[in-house]
Amino acid sequence: MPDRQLLHIVIGGELSDVEHNIFRDCSKIDFVGAYPTYDQALAAWRSKAQATVDNALMRYFIIHAHKLLDPSTDEHHH
Q1: Are 68 and 30 in contact (CB under 8 A)?
Q2: What angle do CA 48, 5, 44 make, to 5 degrees?
Q3: What is the CATH number of the domain that holds 47?
Q4: Residue 78: inside a domain, yes or no?
Q5: Which terminus has fewer CB within 10 Å in the chain: N or C?
Q6: Total domains present in the chain
Q7: Gap between the Cα atoms of 64 and 9, Å rounded
Q8: DSSP 8-class letter at 19
């Protein structure tokens, strides 16, 4: 049986409140992509984060979508 796919989604955008991670304009959220492994998502996140380092309000996040789709995958897998 193949390993379970642990879906990760990378999104980002400019925040209006960095303390509470509130996006300034949800219609402008950058959907970077969906990735089958944490390592691939991390690489995409790192690339976007480095490319926008000059904007202090720009933040990118990795969403562990597999936890939303199947809460039993809540273990930490890489």
Answers
A1: no
A2: 10
A3: 3.30.70.2400
A4: no
A5: N
A6: 1
A7: 7
A8: T
- What pLDDT score was predicted for residue 75? 55
Most distant CA pair in the chain, distance: 45
51 domain-assigned: yes
Residue type, 10: V
Q: Do the domain assignments include residue 50? A: yes
Buried b (16+ CB within 10 A) or exposed e, 43-67: ebbeebeeebeeeeebbbbbebbbe
Using CA atoms in the order 13, 18, 39, 7, what is the torsion angle rounded to 10 degrees? -70
Alpha carbon distance 12, 28 (integer Å)? 9
Tokens 């949800």 sit on residue = 26
